[in-house]
Amino acid sequence: MTEKISFVLDASVKGVKDIVSTTTATERLTAALAAQRGEVQSLNGQLKGIKGFEAAELRAEKLSAQLTETKSTMTSLSAAIAESKQKTTQLRGEYNLTQNEIRGLNQEMQQASKEGAQALQVKLKEAQLRLESLNTEIYQNKAQTNDLFVAYKRASGKFGKANRQTGEAT
Asked: CB atoms < 10 A from the CB of 98, how many?
C-alpha cells in the first residue's frame, strides 16, 4: 500500500509539475506574443511610412511633369503674345500710313479738277476700305493678344501652384 500511495503521490507531484510547467510555458508564450505584437505594430508603422514616401514620390513625379508641360505652354504662349504684339504694332503703322494717305488724297481732291477728282475718289475709297480692314484686323489681333495673355496668366497660375506643391512634396 505504501507503494500505491507513493505512486499516487508521485503521480500527483508529476501532475502539479506539469501544470506549473504548462503555466510557465503559457506565460512565456504570452510574453513572446506581446513582444511580437509590438514588433508587428512597429513594422506596420514603417510600412505605412514607406507607402507614404512612395506616394509622395509619385506625386512629385506627376507635379514635375505638370511643371514641365506648363513651362512649355508658357514659353509658347509668351512667344505667341510677342508675335501678336509685333503684328499689332505693324498694323498700327500701316493704319497710320493709310490715314496719312487719305489726308493727302483729300487735300489733292480739293485742288483737283472734276476728272482728276473722280480718279482720286476711287483711290480715296480704296484707302478707306484698307483703313477699315486694318482697323478690323487690329481689333481682332488685340482680342487674340488678350486671349493669349489670359491663357498665359492661367498657365503661370498653374505653374506657381504646381511649383509650391513640388516644394511641399520634397
From this structure: 20
89 vs 137: CA distance, rounded Å: 12
- The predicted model scores a pTM of 0.57
d(CA 32, CA 34): 5
Length of the chain: 170
The pLDDT tens digits of the residues spanning 34-48 come to 888 888 888 888 888
Distances (CA, A) of 13 to 16, 24, 96, 137: 5, 16, 122, 112
- Buried b / exposed e over 134-165, threshold 16 CB at 10 Å, is beeebeebeebbeebbebbeebeebbeebeeb
For the segment 17-72, what is each residue's pLDDT rounded down to a tens digit? 666 677 887 888 888 888 888 888 888 888 888 888 888 889 889 888 888 888 89
CA triple 26-27-32, angle to 5 deg: 95
In angstroms, the CA 120 to CA 112 distance is 8
